[in-house]
Amino acid sequence: MAMEKRWKNDIAYAMTPFKLIAWPIGVWPLQNYNFYSLLRSALGIGGAGLMVILPSIELCMGCTDAEQNVDCIMLICCGMLGVLKMIWFRIYANSLIDNYSSAMNDYLTIENVDERAIMRKHAFIGRIVSCPMLCLSYFSCMIYGLIPFLGYDEGNQINITRSMNEDAILKYAIPSGCTMEYFHAPASMYKAFCLIQVVAMILSTNAHIGNDALFLNITLHICGQVKILRDHFVDFNVTSPRVHDRFNALIQRHCYLIMLTRKLADMISFILLIELFIISILLCVMGLQFMIALKNNDTVMMTKSLMVLCTFLSQLTVYSLIGNYLKSQMEDIRFSIYQSAWCDFPAKLMKNLIFIFMQTEYPVALQAGNFIMINLSTYMSILKSSFSYLSVLRVMLET
């Protein structure tokens, strides 16, 4: 009974926070994939899609100023990423199902106290790295949602002529004043429409950042399992009976973890390519907006820009750190074997070590488009390019 309770506590600790994020939008891997999960996915896609459609209409109608143009571009990009991830995580649901089912089995079968501590540590890291991204995103949604109710920048509202009268276009959480005017949205429903848009932004955040948290959590679990496997190689006892069987079990475990990691890497490859491209652009755009706001002493715009910048930077940082950590864990398998008593292995078994070394020579890693490695080197390259671009723009603003 005590063992069963501990299993339940470990599984709840590792998975419950991510279930609360992923289940409402229908991408939780351990759910029943039925009509209701599809309906929840449609709701998540609808929320993210609303962030694409409304700002796009505003840009086409030409009713936005410079600040709103930047907001529209940012919201469109985030909405597109949310829609893409929702569709991708449904198409490649089997990859997540296999990984999360394997993680569930790992928690149910673990008996060693040290190995359990490693798994709990990686589950804790999964919480820590996901929390800043989600909190910053939700806080940004609240800021964008509160601005219309605070009546920000009422003096600069755009006026349009309709029925021989000039009426001020109302501000919404998502730039959509002209769109609402065009569809004759009743002014009495203004607050209700604002609330709906805030809910859509939260759903889009779950679709965008929440799916990232879901993916990164299981990636860290794989890293923890590789760490446990490395310890098994280091502590491998040659003097115990059935040496070949025990070592082959470790090799099979290694191949199994490679297979799970490759499924995750293949699933996220295209998304990472699009995400890196969009984040690189948005870092420059939002950085420019922040510099303009700083020059004009515009506190609200500075707050908005800074929160969005921090969100994108935290997202890029977390992916780079975990991608780098996964690659290093996969590569270090060979060093763990080298630290074992390999010189005492039987001759036949010692020959098989060459194949393990060959496998770790080209480890499975997170890649964007299967050609850009997601690691700290890529992270620094993106930051250097972005800051160089912003330095040029700052000089242009000052002249």
Structure notes:
The chain has 399 residues and is mainly alpha-helical. It has one domain. It has twelve helices and four strands. The protein has helices at residues 2-22, 35-61, 66-91, 93-109, 113-150, 177-182, 190-234, 243-296, 299-331, 333-339, 347-361, 376-398; strands spanning 159-162, 165-168, 367-368, 372-373. A two-stranded antiparallel ribbon has the order 1-2. Strands 3-4 form a two-stranded antiparallel sheet. Strand 3 and strand 4 form a beta hairpin. Helix 2 (35-61) packs across helix 7, helix 7 (190-234) packs parallel to helix 9 and helix 8 (243-296) packs antiparallel against helix 9. The longest helix is centred in the last third of the chain and has 54 residues, at 243-296. The termini are far apart. The model is unreliable at 152-167 (pLDDT under 50).
Concise structural overview:
The protein has helices at 2-22, 35-61, 66-91, 93-109, 113-150, 177-182, 190-234, 243-296, 299-331, 333-339, 347-361, 376-398, and strands spanning 159-162, 165-168, 367-368, 372-373.
| Derived structural class | mainly alpha
User: What is the total tally of β strands?
Assistant: 4
Instruction: State the separation between the terminal residues, measured CA to CA.
Output: 73 Å
Mean pLDDT: 85
Major sheet: size, sense and barrel closure? 2 strands, antiparallel
Percentage of residues in helical conformation: over 70%
**How many separate domains?**
1
Instruction: Extract low-pLDDT stretches.
Output: 152-167
**Radius of gyration computed on alpha carbons:** 25 Å
So how many helices?
Answer: 12
Can you write the helix and strand succession as a string? HHHHHEEHHHHHHEEH
Beta content? under 5%
